[in-house]
Specification:
heterodimer; A: 765 residues; mainly alpha; Amino acid/polyamine transporter I; two-stranded antiparallel ribbon; 29 helices; B: 67 residues; 3 helices; flat; transmembrane (chain A); Carbon starvation protein CstA (chain A)
Chain lengths: 765, 67
């Protein structure tokens, strides 16, 4: 029946179209009908889009042009949401029309490979939430906070414009191409499209990048929990809670996911409240006040055990909790910002926007702002999620625009809200919290003096404000709590207490925020270690086949130990770094993430070229060029900059020379051991930068070569197509969140089809 | 009043269903549906077996979570 002509769907002449079953209603809205619907501008539609454009324009005007004392947070919401809507409605449709060219007559892997387990057709709105929960984590909550050093405008522009032109484009394309390839991973696609050299470079780069990303996420948790008995207790309690949930789901009531998630959530709240009580007691403060090095070691041991324990015991239940929290937190944050509408007194461009010696992160606005904010604008890590899992669940090809592009817009919105929360706090407080202890001196008095000496407009902070803030949020100190998470938590507590509970609730909201960030990060650490271990096992397996067996314990354990050892070493390096780990390592995190984006976009570039789309290649080339320029410039500066604060090797040389001169303290390092640590750390960080950038250049070069080759041989029909063969679809579902008129009509037709005819699959066992 | 309550309860139920879908709580139901519609000869896995199999397969095939 697959050979029967498909007259009803009017598919003639469409590239790659397949003939669908004539006994069924069309599986796609007729192209002409959809085009007509798209192009028909009713007065209502015109008015709506004019209103959206106008509101967005006014919001951007308020943010970018008007220079008042303060700016209201609601303008951030309007500027971002209106821009997202316009980007989604217009730009993503351009991509759909000219680059991806989805065909709903083709079955998706979820249909033709349906197994009821991994390949399952999933309702588009549910999958949107599912995909969003998988891509959004602590990243968009941390980067924008750190980048706020430059003022609010550079970060806001990059998050909003970056996502529309780069981040969402990457997510959408990777998801679509992976879907056309049966849900293949980014690594497999790189190998197929770029050949052995490009593919291998992409694999090694991905593995190293994962190590860095896991290490720095872990560093954020360590910094948030250091000297915080409340935080240590409540975050520590997530482990027994998850174990309990795991056992509950495995043995007591299998499959009752919702039920156990609610129980877990209640326990989690109890752990936060209990943490406050425990931290008040003498014994509680005694046991749970841990220094950063101890917490880092705890996290390393935890990371190893968590990655070798079976998934059902720890990872799966915590994943449920994490998803539950993610959706709850984001809805809550959005509501709070819209209801409270805090006034922002941070300038659009701060004094540090034009300099390269900012205390939070060093380096000039270009390129370092663009690597500091990765998640939320352009995150290469998403390519690993957008390929693989989600494409196996997509019901119809056209839905990838909504899920891939739209899902990333949603993450960008989270980043904007995190930025708003972070800049709603006092600016002096922001710098006292985010500068390393080497600068602030660590006490409220020294920190206040230091902040006031920066000469920032309108900043005059008193030691009392610092101690009062610490008291309000239930911490011993807020000075030099770097890493972004504590700042966001203070900002969130500040906003939420105006919404619910007042000052008395601030400490709860603060630890609630720390809890969810830690939860997201622990899940990412655990899952990241597992994925990295798996990749390592697979690579070693090419030489020692035994390693490919996932169930072979010694191999799995050895590879887990290697991966944990690798990120653990970077983590310890960051924790003990006298310069403050976030300050030196966060740029590396951003560079790594953006390089992964460059790799993903390179693969997309090669695929788009091989499909013969040259006129619109710029849609991929533009974000790729930008990511490549930003990361290569940033890497170059990190490697070659003569300014010690920026260049790893310059710093290395400065400290080596100081040691050779027999100095016992130099810069921020107060002992010889600390100085030696700086020498060692900067060398490792420097060489890591070198390796990253070399591998990425190889990948980008192979992609450009593949593109040129495809251009030369265009029309010859020799381009290899790695897509799975097209198969006719037997189902229909709307493409966007709300069905259009034509889609509703078609849905009504499908309603009339008897169920047995609808889902029958030929040739299935 | 009654109608308003019904709307509210419907809305809440819809939200709960959505959330359980996002969490993946309906995986077994979908598996059964697939099993039925494909005319498998053998009996389907029981709920307990299905969830065991699901997490055990995740052990062998880990999925990333993002930053």
């Amino acid at each position: 029946m697959a050979e029967a002509p498909d007259n009803r769907a009017g598919s003639t002449g469409q590239e790659g179209s397949v003939a669908t079953d004539p006994a069924l209603p069309p599986t796609a809205v007729d192209d002409a009908v959809r085009d007509a619907e798209d192009r028909k501008w009713t007065p209502g539609k015109i008015a709506l889009w004019a209103a959206i454009s106008l509101l967005g324009g006014v919001a951007w005007f308020m943010l970018a042009i008007v220079r008042g004392e303060t700016v209201n947070a609601i303008w951030f919401v309007f500027a971002s949401v209106c821009t997202y809507l316009i980007g989604y409605r217009f730009y993503s449709k351009v991509i759909e029309r000219f680059i991806t060219r989805p065909d709903d007559r083709r079955a998706t892997p979820a249909e033709y490979k349906a197994d009821g387990k991994d390949y399952v057709r999933t309702d588009r709105n549910v999958l949107f939430g599912h995909h969003f929960a998988a891509i959004a984590g602590a990243g968009p909550l941390v980067g924008p906070v750190i980048a706020a050093q430059m003022g609010y405008l550079p970060g806001t522009i990059w998050i909003i414009v970056g996502v529309v032109l780069a981040g969402a484009v990457q997510d959408y394309l990777v998801m679509f191409f992976s879907m056309r390839r049966g849900g293949r991973s980014l690594g497999q696609m790189a190998r197929e499209e770029l050949g052995v050299i490009g593919g291998t470079a992409a694999l090694i780069a991905t593995l190293l990048i994962m190590v860095i990303i896991v290490a720095i996420l872990a560093l954020v948790v360590v910094n948030a929990l250091g000297e915080s008995p409340w935080g240590v207790f409540s975050v520590g309690m997530t482990i027994p809670i998850a174990l309990f949930m795991g056992v509950y789901l495995r043995y007591l009531r299998p499959g009752k996911v919702m039920e156990v998630s609610i129980i877990g959530f209640v326990l989690l709240m109890a752990a936060i409240i209990g943490g406050g009580i425990v931290a008040e007691t003498a014994w509680g403060a005694d046991i749970f006040t841990l220094d950063k090095v101890t917490i880092a070691w705890g996290l390393i041991v935890y990371g190893f055990i968590a990655a070798i324990l079976p998934v059902w015991l720890l990872l799966a239940p915590r994943d449920y909790l994490s998803t539950f929290m993610k959706i709850g937190v984001i809805v809550m944050l959005a509501l709070a910002i819209i209801v409270v509408r805090p006034e922002i007194n941070v300038p659009a461009f701060s004094e540090f926007a034009g300099r390269e010696n900012g205390p939070v992160f060093p380096g000039a606005l270009f390129p370092f702002l663009f690597v500091t904010i990765a998640c939320g604008a352009l995150s290469g890590f998403h390519a690993l999620i957008s390929s693989g899992t989600t494409p196996k669940l997509v019901e119809k090809e056209r839905q990838t625009r909504y899920i891939g592009y739209g899902g990333m817009l949603m993450e960008s919105f989270v980043a904007i809200m995190a930025l708003v929360a972070a800049i709603s706090i006092d600016r002096g407080l922001y710098f006292a919290m985010n500068a390393p202890a080497a600068l602030t001196g660590g006490t409220v008095e020294t920190a206040a003096t230091w902040v006031n000496s920066l000469g920032l407009a309108g900043v005059n902070i008193s030691p009392e404000l610092l101690s009062e803030t610490a008291r309000n949020v239930g911490e011993q100190s807020v000075v030099s709590r770097t890493g972004g998470a504590p700042t966001l938590a203070v900002g969130l507590a500040h906003i939420m207490q105006q919404f619910i509970g007042g000052t008395a609730m601030m400490s709860f909201w603060y630890h609630f925020a720390i809890m969810f960030e830690a939860l997201f990060i622990l899940t990412a650490v655990d899952a990241g270690t597992r994925v990295a271990r798996f990749m390592l096992q697979d690579s070693i397996g090419n030489f020692v086949p035994k390693f490919k067996e996932a169930s072979w314990r010694p191999g799995a354990w050895l590879c887990t130990a290697i991966m944990v050892g690798a990120w653990g070493a970077v983590l310890l390096m960051g924790v003990t770094d006298p310069l403050g780990g976030i300050n030196t390592l966060f740029p590396l995190f951003g560079i790594a993430n953006q390089l992964l984006a460059a790799i993903a976009l390179s693969v997309c570039l090669a695929i788009v070229a091989k499909r013969g789309t040259f006129k619109y290649l710029w849609i991929v080339a533009l974000p790729l060029a930008f990511a490549a320029v930003v990361t290569i410039t940033a890497s170059y500066q990190k490697i070659f900059s003569p300014t010690p604060a920026v260049g790893y090797f310059a710093n290395n040389a400065a400290f080596s020379k100081a040691l050779a001169d027999g100095k016992t303290e130099f810069g921020t390092a107060k002992t010889v051991t600390a100085m030696e640590a700086v020498v060692r750390n900067t060398a490792i960080q420097g060489w890591l930068s070198v390796i990253f950038v070399v591998l990425s250049i190889i990948v980008i070069a192979t992609a450009v070569l593949a593109t040129i080759k495809a251009f030369r041989t265009r029309g010859a029909g020799t381009a290899t197509d790695n897509e799975d063969p097209a198969r006719p679809s037997r189902v229909f579902a709307p493409a966007g969140p709300v069905p259009t008129a034509a889609e509703r009509e078609l849905l009504a037709e499908w309603e009339k089809v008897p169920a047995n005819l609808r889902f029958e699959r030929a040739g299935h066992h | 009043m009654g109608a308003g309550l019904a709307v509210l309860s419907n809305g809440f139920r819809g939200f709960a269903r959505y959330l359980s879908g996002v969490l993946g709580a309906d995986a077994y139901a979908k598996y059964l549906e697939h099993h039925r519609s494909c005319g498998h000869s053998g009996p389907p896995l029981t709920e307990r077996e299905f969830w065991r199999d699901r997490t055990d397969r995740q052990d062998a095939n880990p999925q990333g979570r993002c930053c």
